Amino acid sequence: MASMLLSRQLTCCLQQNSRLLVFGHRYISQAAAKIDVDFDYDGPLMKTEVPGPRSRELMKKLNGIQNAEAVHFFCNYEESRGNYLVDVDGNRMLDLYSQISSIPIGYSHPSLIKLLQQPQNLSAFINRPALGILPPENFTEKLKESLLSVAPKGLSQVVTMSCGSCSNENAFKAIFMWYRNKERGHNSVTKEELESCMINQPPGCPDYAMLSFMGGFHGRTLGCLATTHSKAIHKLDIPSLDWPIAPFPRLKYPLEDFVKENQQEEARCLEEVEDLIVKYRKKKKIVAGIIVEPIQSEGGDNHASDDFFRKLRDIARKHGCAFLVDEVQTGGGCTGKFWAHEHWGLDDPADVVTFSKKMMTGGFFHKEEFRPNAPYRIFNTWLGDPSKNLMLAEVIKVIKTEDLLNNATHAGKALLTGLLDLQARYPHLISRVRGRGTFCSFDTPNDATRNKLITIARNKGVVLGGCGDRSIRFRPTLIFKDHHAHLFLNIFSDILANFK
Amino acid sequence: MASMLLSRQLTCCLQQNSRLLVFGHRYISQAAAKIDVDFDYDGPLMKTEVPGPRSRELMKKLNGIQNAEAVHFFCNYEESRGNYLVDVDGNRMLDLYSQISSIPIGYSHPSLIKLLQQPQNLSAFINRPALGILPPENFTEKLKESLLSVAPKGLSQVVTMSCGSCSNENAFKAIFMWYRNKERGHNSVTKEELESCMINQPPGCPDYAMLSFMGGFHGRTLGCLATTHSKAIHKLDIPSLDWPIAPFPRLKYPLEDFVKENQQEEARCLEEVEDLIVKYRKKKKIVAGIIVEPIQSEGGDNHASDDFFRKLRDIARKHGCAFLVDEVQTGGGCTGKFWAHEHWGLDDPADVVTFSKKMMTGGFFHKEEFRPNAPYRIFNTWLGDPSKNLMLAEVIKVIKTEDLLNNATHAGKALLTGLLDLQARYPHLISRVRGRGTFCSFDTPNDATRNKLITIARNKGVVLGGCGDRSIRFRPTLIFKDHHAHLFLNIFSDILANFK
């Protein structure tokens, strides 16, 4: 099957225009690229429709104990390797979604297998401590080797958490505490504050808010959900908080062709941000912080210019609000920099940056002034998991050794160039192609077409993910190479050519 | 050192009254008991004050990157075994706190080491999937072997989460959805609901509430925190929700000696619960559910009678509220039953039961009627971690094979009997001794005395935990045996005798 795909690809390349011949040229470098990913498979291998009979049988069983309607198929992770996800029916698929963007260096990476086989590492997996009170000897060292070695500029402090939602929830709390201390101007707390907070009332529980953007996604716990505005299904029936919501720019792509229109759209949104801060303060609801994703992901891969974010940062500073950048989905290298917000070139760093997914552990970086002024204020039983820190240290070593940030830039360029070409050829199916590194996406005409394309691609051996109401997003691992991009583009080109 | 302790203990037993001779008798069975815990150490071994010089050095380093003031000491988990926690200065301590009650079967359990060494299990640790969309082949099977094999009666459904807070947050959401569907009476949603929920407003985000109890602890994310009322430091400066808070009974111990007074106190609290539900409904804030811990843990180990909880369950049903039992700290067997609420003998089971800590994964059980009516409503990227399910299946096998629930009852009785004896001998230091299984506690005269006792005990080789404003709580592992109870009691008896 793989060799069939290869010959089909070469034939395809030879038959097509000069732009695609560039693909052919790049494809020839596959052998060299593959040295870096020697545990990878050489192509998809499909045996059944997906989900296949075994997956369907297992879905039925799982559905007996929980709503399993979101399950795509069941996986054989033991057999999954590199960029390829193998399912329980023996189908092997090129995975461009990587578990909702959460697998950093591919499946079954030899470095991680080796790490797990070393006897001295066993303890980290079976003796999970309460990190806030009884950390293991190597805790600081592993944080330095992993998270702190890639800390965004100016953020010297880091706290680990178990997932993305907990990371944002605790980042909000750190911001609220910081804001209140700033308002107080001193460290002493009144009796009234201590008593009123116990019954959820001000002044102990002040009427503070986080400003968020329409289309943003920051998690699903109640605090996070008050800042999430991507899909109704996430929010319906759940009580929320009256926090301000600003419009996020709706830009035209490619960005370089619509500079003026996009600037106007961004200016409109920024003005609204300032208006909301003032309006909410007037009604005694203080905006303590602004939360934003560098690229709105769940909400439909909505980009904004670097200039927009620099101006947003300025607005936050001007109004005394903390500036929180949610890098849960964008962080970890897929945009070509370790953190997507590093593209912006901020003079004054973000105040707080949250992460999870590819970082294997949740958590957040922050400036020193956001440090809680007492123990147990940002705290829970586990505060993350040292076994994840251990794996992350290894993952970051691989990212550095194998120059995977540059790889993301390079492979992302191959992917984006190919998508632009497909857009030119199939404008009725593909529009608004956009991306940074491998963090690419495009729009389809509607939800039904999008879902149909994802299903067909899956049956041809490619796992894709949707986002927003009609977008397809690319979230490959960091070991996704140019040749994987070309492999995908050829398969997808065939799909588009035959799409009815 | 261990043999010194042993001989001191025997001498001590021989010198004391018949009640303590029972300890001596039980102690003789230590050899038999130790067969079950053959990877355990035979006693504490202290080399330095705790925290020792190495711990202090590491605390200073950690404090450079996060507030490390809550750290007790740094641990050598590789050397920690069974009930004994070893620190980085080579001190070996009998651990009666077990990482805030989160280590089920002791440190470095051979079954878990073996599990990690089996090549077929490696994948679960290094290939963490998005469980809601791409579960591993053995997902349902492992849930059946682990969580479902100990599911509370009547609760056929289970969802996994990454931590205790996420478990409660998502349980709240399941309850809110259930309540709203009940109100609707049908499955269709209005356009107004879909639109208003996107901007955090009713009717899409209805004004629903969870009723909680003063002194309760249910986590620290914003939704959970609105139901947490244990300590001001947890809540100060964080905006909250106007949700009803009922008084939790403040009982006299031993419960059997104060039946009438305690009944009156419980009746007062139950009446207040009903009043609050009615009062909040009048102001259009609907109490959709009631959340309660079987024993308020962080809040000071506050017990209530089985009758109180049966009546509370009845009130929930009468008013159409969901009844959510938070077993994050009480669950997993330490009270002598797998779930503490199984002691109550409810006719109608709880609607939702949350767990985490000793269960290694977070999550919640629920009745079928609380199943979300669509996919992606209770969802996040990871939805727990299959590596934790794998370990939990092994832990539950050990709990069953080694009859550890009965062990908790038995060892708990030895501990409680000893504490009652110490209370009789040192009433100025120990009061309100209480417990179920090994989930025991007592009060000290004040915060300062409590903290001093904990520090002295630690330097004598025993790790204890505090809770509430002046209580000491016992949270040993499930392999804590009678002889460990006697070992502790002897050490603590000496401490009390010499306390100034």
TrEMBL record, chains A, B:
Coiled-coil residues: none
Matches recorded under Pfam families: Aminotran_3
Cofactor(s) listed in the protein's UniProt record: pyridoxal 5'-phosphate
PROSITE patterns: AA_TRANSFER_CLASS_3
GO CC annotations on file: mitochondrial matrix
Keyword Transferase found: yes
Gene Ontology MF annotations: (S)-3-amino-2-methylpropionate transaminase activity; 4-aminobutyrate:2-oxoglutarate transaminase activity; iron-sulfur cluster binding; metal ion binding; pyridoxal phosphate binding
Family: Belongs to the class-III pyridoxal-phosphate-dependent aminotransferase family.
Subunit structure: Homodimer; disulfide-linked.
Protein name, per record: 4-aminobutyrate aminotransferase, mitochondrial
